[in-house]
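Let's practice the habit of predicting before peeking. Look at the sequence and jot down your guess about where helices and strands might fall. Then scroll down.
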Amino acid sequence: VLTNIQALRAFAALNVVLYHIFGTARNYGFPLGPLTFVEGWGRNGVDLFFVISGFIMVFIQHAKQKTPAGFFMDRVKRIVPLYWALNLFLVLLLIVVPSLFKELLLSANWTLSSLFFISRVAGHETPLIFPGWTLELEMFFYLLFAISLFARSLFNSFWVTTLLIVTSVIFFGLNRIALEF
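Done guessing? Here is the structure:
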């Protein structure tokens, strides 16, 4: 089962990479030529990642029975160090070689909100690293799932998580794509 999931992850990753390559090429005025017909197709990679992420979390929790804190800290250890390193590297590049960027203005608020996965909440459209918006949703979902683990059974955790996500979408304006988790 997990081998097939890994293949789906690779497929999703390729789609996301292609989507961003095409978007960046278009932003910088490079023609897409004969590849124009697949330009928007890669957008499905994020949807696939979110569905896979929801499945994997339940699968892992079923197999390992982590505490809520243990589950959340495992996710933090996997994501935060690399994400912070990439964000800080981007900040360094912006300071040292600002001409590399077409249009990116640095601020302490934007940097901190990006580092703590709350750029949208802090009033920014996206985090410093644009694809980080997906990680902000992932981290929010990890937090909700960890909270739901207090329900003691995986079945109840599923329903608590679902309720929290639906409530967040309906009442707090969370991106509807979060429903894919």
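How did you do? The chain has a mean pLDDT of 85.
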